[in-house]
Known about the structure:
mainly alpha
Amino acid sequence: MTRVLFFIAALSAPLFFPASIAIILAALASFFIPLAALSVGIWYDLLYLPGGHFPYGLMWGAIGSLVALGVRRFVETRIIGG
């Protein structure tokens, strides 16, 4: 239930909060669901990207998702393996 609430809060953050809070909520949600940062980045670009500009939300969301996947695998390996 907590995972779903964090994900819903992260997806609704670009609608109600400034970008810095949306990034923090996306980072928190990506601890539970690693692709949440990518989802929020795509959603942020769909809402606020002007035509002809580079999609920074997509880029930072992909980087955040890769970091979350790496951290998740590292933590699971250390807890289970050692």
